[in-house]
Amino acid sequence: MSRETLIDLLYLFSATTFVLALKGLGSPKRARLGNMVAAFGMLVAIVATFFRYVDGHAMYHVPLMILGIVIGLVVAVPVARFVKMTAMPQLVAIFNGVGGGAAALVSITEFMHIKATHPATYVALEVLLGVLIGTFSFAGSAVSFAKLQELMTGRPVTYPGQQFINGIVGLAALATIVTVLVSASQMMLWVLLGLAAVLGVLFVLPIGGADVPVLISLLNAFTGVAVAASGFTLGSNLLIVAGTLVGASGLLLTRLMSKAMGRSLGNILFSAFGATVTASGATERADGRSVRSGSPEDIAIMLGFASRVVFIPGYGLAVSQGQHVLRELADLLESKGIEVFYGIHPVAGRMPGHMNVLLAEANVPYEQLVEMDEANSELQTADVALVVGANDTVNPAAVDDKTSPIYGMPIIHADLAENVVFLKRSMRPGFAGIENELLYNPKTTLVFGDAKDTLTKMVAAVKAS
Amino acid sequence: MGNALLQYATVFMLAIFVGIEIIAKVPSILHTPLMSGSNAIHGVILVGSMMILGAATTNAEEILGFLAVILAALNVVGGFVVTDRMLEMFKPKAKTPKAPASGEVAK
């Protein structure tokens, strides 16, 4: 067997592991194994690549390759290992972005390399797509990262003439593509790279922070497509298979995610929701309607009299790292014979499934975690709904108010419980920037302060009683 | 338009269908790990980055290729490690960690 055939066989093996891994990632039992299988397949592909021949010679610059990979290892492993679980979404965004950047660079460099041989027009087209989509994904991911990391506002950014400006940049990109196709100009390829970056930024700016996870999923799919385009240019089946798999499954996943939020993808991407609505909402509420607030000790007494309590955790819980104390409170209440459930909204936290991960980290037993529909039926007979750092996911406006930007999103009906308790840092609205009517409900009590502090005080008070 | 292009297009088309078919039913709690896992898989661009660096004959190609290798390596390594860390949490039901905690409470 020739060297090339052997390497191609190893690549085939890797591609197979990727398919199996994606399959495994769809089931809770096999997910972790699936990820490891893909990692192994990737390792095989990378090692095999070192032994390839390109342009009829062995690989040049092998030490440089190893150096690059080592740099990647040294930077990425500690970051991925030790960044807080709450920051996970922005981490995925940034790792996706660099992948898109790499795909764009691969396409552009390959074009430089083969330009002298006057490649066919379709090759130029593949390069153009790789550069355009890869760079777009890179820039979009960078802005998503900034939004999630709160380096910039999480609100949708809108300005007059936005559509017009986007249109102009889009047209300019199109014109550049045509120019490159006709003239095979390398210079114009760099212009396209710049335009694609601008487009990526413009595209993400008007999308609200709460929707950014869906956006990351979309950009992830884009990077997959960019990788597939590079695969066409390089003539690599492995890249085509892996990139296309990610592109196709990523697009479908993006649709599933937006469905879980009760919205269409188009609505998420193009409605710039929240921007105008919040403005009117904020002034309307400035009339100083009163809310009822209480101390942690008051709540402890309320909990002591309850027989069924539902916790509704949100991102605020994760931010204050209060999940361990919350579990302690749950254990304490259970030891007093009080039933405790955690009602988990599908998009609680910053991404679908994020909250399950955070609670699992605090060793919350699985059987106490109930999904939204079940939580809603439990809530009908619950004495207390304790909302910890959540807001939008319990906002009744999603059901009652047709004008609300989150109208149609399924919610956890905390308002069904006998008493509702909110642990909040302030009256500030949630991530989507929408006022929550439930805060003003007569059966609602608010406890202001850091969720972890409040929970710790509540644990002490319940213990004392 | 050679046979090679046709072969790549065939692979491309089939991969689309596999990609769609494979994740048709995924519980919402696994959406994030799935996204992160597929994020790691497109890190296979590292193979492409290595190919262009391995073929580089000019300084510009070397620099761009080296940069691509670094970025792609970050994608691969970070992607797999983050996904694994997320999935670490989905352990099979373990009652043991709960016991000491409630014991502590009883004191």
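qc> Residues 93-107 of chain B have pLDDT under 50 and may be disordered.
qc> done
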